[in-house]
Amino acid sequence: MVENVTTIATNLVIAKSAGGFFNFLNKFFDLVFGWLISWNPLFGLIVISVILTFLVTLAYKYLTNQTLMKDLKDKLKDYQKQMKESKHDQPKMMEIQKQAMELNMKYMLQSFKPTIYTLLPLILIFNWLRLVYQGIDLNFLWFIHNWIWVYILISIAASMLLRKLLKVH
Asked: Rounded CA gap, 45 and 31, in Å?
């Protein structure tokens, strides 16, 4: 634990030494999240993961037409059911599959909108996290040691929960 704290302190100093705009961003992220990571690296990463997932989920909810998304999702489920029922009628199944693919494209285009707004900030935060957690062994669940895998697992779980709570389609 003491070794991790020393490594984190060193990594926070390294993150601050980047030049220009990245220096400003690193100082900002250090101010906002650095204290939490210094206190407990694993808990800090879990909190950051939940916060980022919450912000991305909010962006998804408010930057997409939720009524349209729900309708598209329901129609896609209906097409899947129809394809199952017509698996022995190849021409009918191909027609249904074509319609489902067109609908799926509409769904993907709608869900791409929030990605445009959230991708760059996430890349910048990930760059800072990479600098801060460099050389840190998190020992999450006794077999996950790298920060990115901890982030991914926590964000998947948090996303599932937040989407249900916020009724995101």
From this structure: 15
Residue 61 belongs to domain spanning: 2-165
Model confidence over 111-159: pLDDT tens digits?
999 999 999 999 999 999 999 999 888 888 888 889 999 999 999 999 9
Task: Give SS3 for 144.
Answer: strand
Tokens of 95: 């027609």
Q: What is the pTM of this model?
A: 0.79
- In sequence order, which residues have a C-beta less than 8 Å from that of residue 151 and are 6 or more positions away? 45, 48, 49, 129
- Number of domains the chain contains: 1
